[in-house]
Amino acid sequence: MVRVGVIALQGGVAEHLHMLRRASEETGIPVETVLVKRPWHLDGVSAVIIPGGESTTIGKLMKRTGVAERLHKLLVEEGVAAMGTCAGAILLAKRVRDRVRGETRQETLAAMDIAVTRNYYGRQRESFEALVKLEDPTGLAPELEERPLHGVFIRAPSIDEAWGGARITGKLQGVGVAAMQGSMIALAFHPELTSDTRLHRLLLRLAKK
User: pLDDT tens, 148-160?
Assistant: First the structure.
């Protein structure tokens, strides 16, 4: 059984729950999901999803509730698998800047060796969909490389740099939109808003590894 915590302080949650159920059926990996609003909700999890939403709000709420401190320890010290989508990718990053304002005091988990730019692709009205070719450095999801993945970009960030243990695993017209470090996945786009469960399947396999 893989216990997956979905951060549920703000932002899109239901879509990830739906994709986890489908990924569980397709992989045969039993899944238990828990909505994370307090630190103790993270007890016993082997994977975490940080959904899209408003990164500043989610970051502040995670810190205020104590979720951030507990989650940082799980990711950095205990190697729990994680997937951050859009705002979630920003919250995983060690360095964040804003496309308009430059450097920002964005609260993050500082778990991944990546630098991101908030709102790189503009505001809500500049949202778009695109096919993204991804690499699978883990070898756990070879189907990821068989065909591009449909990505939904909504006020999406860019992943500008990776160092240390991190690696950019997907680009769109030369701009980083996916990265991995160990069992952590950062995505500038929303796979949960499509019908493609490959990334959620990968998360379950990383948690089960």
Answer: 999 999 999 999 9
Residue 10 corresponds to which tokens in the numbers above?
């703000």
Round to whole Å and give the CA distance between 33 and 134.
Answer: 26
CA gyration radius for the chain? 15
* 202 Cα distance to chain centroid: 12
Active site residues: 86, 190, 192
- Domains belonging to the chain, first-starting first, are 2-208 (3.40.50.880)
Give the rounded percent of residues in the chain with a pLDDT score beyond 70: 97
* Cα gap 130→116, rounded to integer Å: 19
Residues in the chain: 209
- DSSP three-state, residue 63: helix
Q: Is there a contact between 94 and 115 (Cβ–Cβ < 8 Å)?
A: yes
User: In this structure, how many other beta carbons lie within 10 angstroms of the beta carbon of residue 18?
Assistant: 13
Per the rule left: phi > 0, alpha: psi between -120 and 50, beta: everything else, 139 is left
Q: What predicted TM-score, i.e. pTM, was given to this entire model?
A: 0.95
pLDDT at 59: 92
Give the 3-state secondary structure of residue 56. Answer: helix
**Which structure tokens are listed for 41?**
């909700």
